[in-house]
Amino acid sequence: MTDTPTGTTIIRAETPVPGIRLLTLDGPATRNSIGRVQYEALRDAVREAGSDRAVRAVVLRGEGGFFCSGGNVAALQESRRQSPAQVARNTDALAAMILSIRACPKPVIAAVEGGAAGLGVALALSCDMVVAAAGAAFTVAYVKIGLTPDGGTLHFLREALPRQLVSELCMLGRPVSAERLDAAGAINRIAAAGSTLDAAMELAAACAAGPAGAIGVIKAQIEEAPGKGLAAQIEIESRGINAARYGDEAGEGLAAFLEKRRPRFPNGGTGGEGA
Questions:
Q1: What residue ranges in the chain does DSSP mark as E strands?
Q2: pLDDT tens-digit map of 244-257
Q3: What's the CA gap between 200 and 229, in Å, rounded?
Q4: What is the distance, to the nearest Å, from the Cα of residue 184 to the centroid of all Cα atoms in its chain?
Q5: What backbone torsions phi and psi does residue 173 show, to the nearest 5 degrees?
Q6: For position 241, what pLDDT does the model report?
Q7: pLDDT band, very low/low/confident/very high, at 4 (cuts 50, 70, 90)
Q8: CA 31, CA 109: separation in Å to the nearest integer?
Q9: What structural domains does the chain harbor?
């Protein structure tokens, strides 16, 4: 759902620990609803994090015990009085926000407290990994007000879930628990209520400790893989590993493995979990 009153939710960006950019949707009075102003602000914040060499991972969260409620319904009603061109500018800004997350060369991890609704579901699932609180509810209720999903909602749901579960979510508009989505493979970790930020920061720290260049290539290849045939994907991966093997990251990683020590990747990565 698109558009929400200007200033309802602000996007806060901070770096609580070196290498990790924390982006917060701060508008708890509307459960962090978002519209064109927020689309543009979040897009810019993600792009800035992606271009900052000191940032190695991004965490996205909502303030006030809820991730994001999507678009403000009162503002959506008001948008019916706008011209198609004005409405298209809103949805274009929405698309740019979502695509900025997918194009960001750094891992983006969603920390979902309480739940996500409408566009908030697409926003969470557009991230590379999702941590959700136990009992959190994911609701795609566009159908309840006679609308269809936007922001790539159906793309992300069908990418992660069986058709029957997507149909239930979108055709009935009923909440689905984080536990059920976790069992279906759409969520990386269930955390105790109130602790999703800590769990997401742990995942971000593990990513930040790894080789930034290799992780960026892996993210891009994951994004492209579903649209490629096997032979084309093998060719892409072959070019990738053949380029990477001569780089500084591989030089350090291979040497560290053979010397039985933790690697110290360029720009601050230290190997992290599983190294």
A1: 10-17, 20-26, 57-62, 108-112, 115-117, 129-133, 137-139, 176-177, 189-191
A2: 999 999 999 999 99
A3: 33
A4: 18
A5: 70, 20
A6: 93
A7: very low
A8: 19
A9: 10-208 (3.90.226.10), 212-268 (1.10.12.10)
